[in-house]
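User: Fold this; C-alpha cells only.

Assistant: Input:
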Amino acid sequence: MADDWWPTSLAHVPNEDPWTHDHVIVAEIKSFEDGSRSGLRLTVSALVPVSELNAVRENPAALSHEVATSGPHPFPGDQPFEPRFWIEAYGLMGGKYEPIVLSWRSHDHTVLTPDPGFLMTYGLSPRNAGDGVVSWDDPAAPVRDVVKVVSPSIYSYPRATPASVSILKPYLQDYLTLRKKALVQSFWEKRFSRTSKELEERLGDKELVDLDTPARRMRLCRLPGPERIVLAEASGSRIVAVPGDLPITDDAEQAEGLVWPGIDGPVSHQRAMGMGATDYVYVEDRVLGDYEGRADFRINPEHGSVSFGTQWSV
C-alpha cells in the first residue's frame, strides 16, 4: 500500500498551503460537523532554525501538535518556578522548538496568544475588533490587523468553539528573516465518515490500525454500531515559510522614495525633509477616507492633509 495514502475525509490535509493567504494561520482550534459526530483540528507553529530544516523534512511527524508548558497551576517546590513554552520535536536534534503562538488550558478553556516577542518587534498595539476578535495594529505605519486573535476556545463535548491566530504575511516573512528561522506548522485532525472499500482494505479484520510513516502519523478506527462509521486521525507538519526578504524592516520605499505626479524623480525621506511649504502634492479624497472618523488621526479635506499625533503628517 502506498505510503502517501490519505482517506477521503482527510484528503484535503496534504494539499493545504497556509502561505497562499494574506493572513497566515499560525494557530487554530476548529470543529467540523461530520454528520452526527464532530471532527476537530488543532494547529500550532514552531520557529525552527534553518540548520535543522533537513531533519524536519525527513521526519515531519516528529513535531507535536500542541504547545507544552511548565504550568498552569504548578506545584510549589524548592526551585523557583519558570514559565516556559515549547513544541516537542521527538527524536530530532533540536528536541524543543519555540512557538510563535503561546497556548495553555485551564478547565475547558484553551487560550491562544501571540508571542510577546513578535508583538514587541513591530511595536504592535491591541484593539478590540468586536465579536471576540482582538486585532494588533502597527500604529507607527499605520497598518491595522497585523495580527488577528480569536480566543479562547471553549470545549464542550464533543465540540470546541473556534479559536485562531493569524498574522499578516509581510510581517511574518520579515520576522522569520530577522530571526533566521523557518515557520513549521504542525497539525492533528480527526474526522468521521462512513466506511468505504479503501477503508475496509486497510482495516481488514481489525477494529483499529496505525498507518504511520515518517511523513505523518495516521490511525483508523472502526466504530461499533449499524452506521458503519470510521474515525480517521492524522498528525504531521509542513514547512510553511523560510527566511527571505525584509518587507517591513528594510522597506525599499524608505530608501528609494515614492513617485508623486508633478514632481520629477522619486521623493526619498531625505528629499522630503528638504522640501518647503510651497512644494505641493495631491492626495485623492478616497485616501483621506481611510483616516476619517479615527480619533488618532486629524485630516483637513480642503488641503488634503493627514496628521498622526506627533509621529508624522502629510
